Amino acid sequence: MQEFLLGSNEYESFNKHGFLVLRHFAPKADLEALQSLAQQQLANPEQPLELEAAVGYPGAPTDATANGGNTVRRQLGAYARHPLYKAWATRPAMVQALQTLFGNTQVFLSQAHHNCLMTKFPAFSSDTGWHQDIRYWAFQQPQLITAWLALGEEDARNGGLKVIPGSHRTSFSKEQFDENLFFRADLPENKAHIDQAMEINLAPGDVLFFHCKLLHCASRNHTDTPKLALVFTYRDSNNAPLANTRSASQPEIALAPPEPAPTVLRLI
Fold first, then answer.
1. Does the keyword Oxidoreductase apply (predicted)?
2. Which domain holds residue 171?
3. What predicted TM-score, i.e. pTM, was given to this entire model?
4. What would the pLDDT profile of 16-30 be if each residue is shown by its tens digit?
């Protein structure tokens, strides 16, 4: 079976821009199985769940008793939910890609962060402002990578991600963020960065890899179809979570390195 093999060009592009898109990264059979599983699990949602009402972002229901108050934002604990999710998160092609982007080190999957089926439902989804994922994480270094598998089309209409290329390499002051650590869109010095933003359009089976310091945002879903993505976050062997923090609250999964196999890359 042919796998994706990244090289120095992809490594350098990721380091420069803070993200990398691999088109058709999920094989057709795997994608269809994951899509089916996601629909089944959303039809009968089981804890742990994060509801839109719990985060209180613009567009979300005001509380769990409001209209749409039971709308799911994330099905948490994906790795342990089902063998298909586990197999996806640890597949050899995933490990090889991450090893290259980290610089050929041992890779660990975090069960404390992301590790979820991310959803955006019509009518009751929310807007997420500009932010860096590392804001609430606690590791020795701010060097983690998230792998975002689109289970359907993602674009501006249904709340697809927007990113600011290269923002993971920029040193920002704490004054450029609000009390919830969102990047302030009202500041002139921030607007210069926001003006450089680009939309990330994904097709089913595409995977977006992005750095934990990359500024990104997303609007609510303006279509009549739920948007679904399977999202996992990884670190390398030199970046353990800090003790007694949320980042260290769940066992991490050590991923074994695979044998490399050549393939053709399709980049954004």
1. yes
2. 8-53+73-255
3. 0.93
4. 999 999 999 999 999
